[in-house]
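Q: What structure does this chain adopt?
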Amino acid sequence: MFTHEQFIQKVARIAIARKGLSDDQRAILGSIKLCYGAGQSGLRGVTYYDRWGNGPDKRAPFVEVCAFGQESTVQLAGTTIHELGHVLAGWGAGHGKGWLDACACLGLTGIKAAGTEYVWDCFDPDIRGKIQKLGAPDDGAPVASIFNAGGAGHTPTGRAVTLKPCGAGVGTRGGKSRGVGSGSRLRLFECECTPPVKVRVARDHFDATCNCCTRLFHAPA
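A:
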């Protein structure tokens, strides 16, 4: 049996092994937690920065490829590299030039923040054939939602769903592919109150405690 989890891991290894990446870049990409999960409605993938612990004082991105936003094998491969591009570009890049350049470095081009119609021509020839040789996962398929190439679809109950940009640009710096001025240049943090107190600061980390719940502010998942 060839699972979806195995497929995205193999796609990631193919992209990370591509010529042109530095040892430091490969180390960054190799430290992440990459998983295949249900995901949020309308999302194909999402990157959470600094949400996976790799030892004392070491944090890496947590990357999820979303089953319920899945269309096809080629889209699954494209989304995996799309999210690796966010990891490589770093927090704050959003869907701007830095992210596009990172995706190109990993062998993926002709893409946008949301609704990309992934085809094999989006992949550079040196990785395209390797990914195609993997074949399709044969452990089943998600049935919660089916999306068409236009970027929208319907759930089994008939409710329309529109694909949204992945979460890496939300609350940071949006690229032009999401519209001019999209995304905030301040990062969102919240406490553990119900409802939480929310603040935006121009920092990657916010070392502050809420006076009500006495818990540290953190970036929402």
